[in-house]
Amino acid sequence: MRKIVQSHATEFALLAVIALISLFLSLATDRFFTLGNAFDLLNTSSVNIIFAVGLLVVLIAGGIDISFAVAASVVQYVAALLLESIGGGGWFSGLLIAAILGVALGAINALLIHRFKIISIVATIATFNIYFGLLMFFTRGVSIYNLPDWLTSRVILFEHEMADGSWVEITLPVLIMVACVISTWVLITRTTTGRQLYAFGDNPEGARRFGINVGGMQFIAFGWLGLMAGIAGLVQAHYAQEVVPNALYGRELDVLAAVVLGGARLGGGKGTVLGCVLGVLMISITQNGLNLMGVSPFAFKMIIGAIILVAITLSNTNIERLLPFMREGSRR
Amino acid sequence: MTDPSGEKADARALLSLRNINMTFGGVKALKNVSFDVMPGEVHCLAGENGSGKSTLIKIITGVYRPASGAVIDYDGQTYSHMSPVTAQNGGIQVIWQDLALFPEMTVAENIAFQTLLGRWPRFVNYGRMRETAIRALKRLGVTLDVDLPLKEFPIAQRQIVAIARALVGEAKIVFMDEPTASLTQSETDHLLDIVRTLSASGVAVVFVSHRLAEVLEISSRLTVLRDGGLVGVYSTEGMTQSRITELMTGRTFDQHVRAQPKDANPVVLEVKNLTRPGQFEDVSFTVRRGETLGITGLLGAGRTELALSLFGMLKPHSGEVVLDGKPVRFSTNREAIEAGVAYLSEDRLSLGLIQPQSIADNLVIASLDGIRTNGLLSDERKRQLVAQWVADLGVKIGKQSDAISTLSGAISSASQSPNGWRPIRNF
Ligand SMILES: Nc1ncnc2c1ncn2[C@@H]1O[C@H](COP(=O)(O)OP(=O)(O)OP(=O)(O)O)[C@@H](O)[C@H]1O
Ligand SMILES: [Mg+2]
User: Fold this and answer.
1) Which CATH number, 3.40.630.30, 3.40.50.1370, 3.40.50.150, 3.40.50.300, labels domain B15-249?
2) Closest CA to B241 of B200, B196, B210, B206
3) pTM to 2 decimal places
4) Domain B262-341 - what CATH class?
5) Do B102 and A211 lie within an 8 Å CB cutoff?
6) Least CB–CB distance from B100: residue in A189, A194, A206
7) Quick one: which of A74, A208, A217 has its CA closest to A137?
8) pLDDT along chain A (332 residues), means of 10
9) Which residues fall within 8 angstroms of residue B41, CB to CB, at 6 or more apart?
10) Which long-range contacts (CB under 8 A, 24 or more apart) does B133-139 make?
């Protein structure tokens, strides 16, 4: 048990913070602690969680990406146009198109970083500007409202009315999110490629000496994030029932904060899917709670900023220092 | 002695190198070197710091590509250069001088890292990995918790992990680049036993060590490099430490030089009854000007903690430290540095140096006050100071502005901010 707590210190710290916040919110509002609200939260967080697990892979491999949210907007827009040109399509063709476009945009980042040796933050700030500039230039900021019917109609996979009158719903975005989370988890913990990504992020020179394909690692990491961003883009269009070119602008920093909060390290080699999901959930829970409490949305950002600081401090502090009883008998 | 220049590769050799040249920027790291290893032999690669030993190993393992014209014969095949994958698949294993481990990953993953390689994704078999790791450690006579991340372990145990890793694969030849650098005597003895076992089972071992006694004890043949050039290949039979030193340096030394007693010199440092419960108790000693004092003890005996206490990074519980006649009590290492105490950490490669920065910047980092003019750092004074230190230390570097990571293992540790060098005070 001690071993588990030690090796998952961040996750436990986050769980504790989430529990505290939830406790506070359920005392402060009567709507928070309902199953209906919990599922609402999952539905609204799906897009960010999909982004987050993609970004996690890039962070583990020692990179960073600023461009993925804007890339998702590009994917939305181009996918909407392509779908129209093929006469509508469906979920399958939609996801396929979004995935291919996303991977292509991610591969551009990988190419800049690997081939032209541009550090990832600079390369992706550049592509962030290029993608966004192109998008605004070609769309002139005009949104698309007439999306295919399949994309705009809500797909409810499971619903149930609770005794208190609230609805428990599982929607398609949640299913897609779960699939993304599980496949990312399988990739980074269960496959040799995933472990190579960790090793590469942890000690690039060491990985190189083992003959790990360094360029391949960049393409896999950024390609995976591109894939997730493409999917997230389509899911977001479905959720919002429209494509607005600047709808996702700025989302990258929220997601980045959540992923780092979840224990991923800027610099590579560290991070878990569970931590990353908890990081996103913690921020959404706070946002949702503040909403229910009727706090002004202008105060949101401030409070969330403060919570990120507190949570990061907690999870960076050695858990053994917080729980002195664990120090006994632990290794020298 | 044989003179291998221009000679044909020896057909019985497992590994045979000819015409190896390697240049980094302006520095010729290897000049027309040849090197042969017989199956199952223990072969020592000797040379001063910066003579090109690690570079040669990196060429054999495909990390670097030698200049064209190189011939690498290995296990019946001829290559003009290697790749890390070919080298590993062919059974070439290395214990790197800088270990090249993955601190965030578990000990098991670090040891059984080979099983994670390969071009195409496979599922990881964690159970088999643990078993492999435990078996490799057992061969070394060590038990470690293989599920903990490597970063939890001190440097000596990491070195053991690096050794265990090299024993996992089906090795035909194992390169050991200073494997004993941070091991205790008993761990070293154990490692030397393993080298003998490997050799007896037909695995060749190429051993790099600056401890010449070890070299003579373990190896049967010796290849000496000097300044990137091959000096020769010798049998260790009848070889003495002083002869090896002569070959390595090209100079003769009087072997009977002993440290001169410094009893007449004034006391610089006096430590009285220094105690930090659980780490060291009641430690007292004095150091005179010009003296070198060795502090020894087993792993975990509190040596590092004692040193850190004298450097202001740990607080002693009780006792007294007198520096230059004045009692001192450092609360930060900054104060210690200002008082003229320098500290070179045991994990020299990661703790002591700022790897991507230049040699010059690393050297002056602890002495920034000494290169300040009118409140701003002066490049000119930095250059002078660094030139003087490099001359004092007698080391070979490329340009002052080269990254510190381009230096050879030992020289980069010598570059750890020598703030204690007095010249800075009267500069
Ligand atoms: N990547 C590099 N870039 C530039 N110069 C390098 C690089 N690697 C090694 N050198 C230079 O090549 C020379 C040989 O270095 P090498 O590391 O092979 O020495 P070594 O014999 O292993 O020394 P030590 O005993 O100190 O480990 C040194 O002068 C070093 O500065
Ligand atoms: Mg070396």
Assistant:
1) 3.40.50.300
2) B210
3) 0.81
4) alpha beta
5) no
6) A206
7) A74
8) 68 85 84 77 92 97 95 95 88 94 96 94 95 92 88 83 76 94 96 95 92 93 97 94 90 90 86 94 87 82 80 60 44 36
9) B199, B204, B205, B220, B221
10) B133/B107, B133/B108, B133/B164, B133/B168, B134/B108, B136/B111, B136/B112, B136/B164, B136/B165, B136/B167, B136/B168, B137/B111, B137/B164, B139/B164, B139/B167, B139/B194
Mapped onto helix, strand or coil, the DSSP state of residue A164 is coil
DSSP conformation class of A187: I
- ipTM above 0.95 for this complex: no
Q: Domain locations in chain B?
A: 15-249, 262-341, 346-427
pLDDT digits (tens, 9 = 90+) for A265-293: 888 889 999 999 999 998 888 888 888 88
B16/B38 Cα distance (integer angstroms): 9
Buried b (16+ CB within 10 A) or exposed e, A146-176: ebbeebeeeeeeeeeeeeeebebbbbbbbeb
What's the CA gap between B230 and B22, in Å, rounded? 13
Looking up tokens 């706090």 gives: A295
Which residue do the tokens 């050794």 mark? B163
Domain boundaries, chain A: 2-330
The two structure tokens encoding residue A274:
């569970």
Looking only at the bridges linking them, the beta strands covering B204-208 and B173-177 are parallel
DSSP element (H, E) containing B270: strand B267-276
Per DSSP bridges, beta strands B204-208 and B326-328 are unpaired
Using a CB–CB cutoff of 8 Å, tell me whether A190 touches chain B: yes
Tell me the CB-side half-sphere exposure of residue B260, using CA atoms within 13 A. 5
Q: Residue A27: is it exposed, middle or buried by C-beta count within 10 angstroms (0-12/13-18/19+)?
A: exposed
Same CATH topology for B15-249 and B262-341: the answer is yes
Cβ atoms A279, A59 nearer than 8 A: no
Q: Is A209 on the interface with B (CB under 8 A)?
A: yes
Q: How far apart are CA B51 and CA B53, in angstroms?
A: 6
In terms of CA atoms, which chain A residue is nearest residue B92? A210
Task: List, as own/partner pairs, every contact residues B122-128 make where C-beta atoms lie below 8 angstroms and the sequence separation is at least 24, other chains included.
Answer: B122/A191, B122/A192, B123/A190, B123/A191, B123/A192, B124/A189, B124/A190, B124/A191, B124/A192, B124/A194, B124/A195
How many contacts, defined by CB atoms under 8 Å, are there between A and B?
Answer: 83
Burial A242-259 (b: 16+ CB within 10 A, else e): bbbbebbeebbebbbbbb
Tell me the residue length of chain A.
Answer: 332
List the alpha helices (DSSP H) in chain A.
Answer: 2-7, 9-28, 35-60, 68-85, 91-115, 120-139, 149-152, 172-185, 192-202, 204-209, 214-240, 251-261, 273-293, 297-316, 319-322
Q: Which pLDDT score is estimated for B11?
A: 63
Strand order in the sheet with B280-288: B280-288, B267-276, B318-323, B326-328
| CB–CB contact B117 A3 (8 Å) | no
- Closest CA relative to residue B227, chosen from B18, B367, B408: B408
Give me the residue from A192, A331, A332 closest to B124, CB to CB: A192
The dotted CATH code for A2-330 is: 1.10.3470
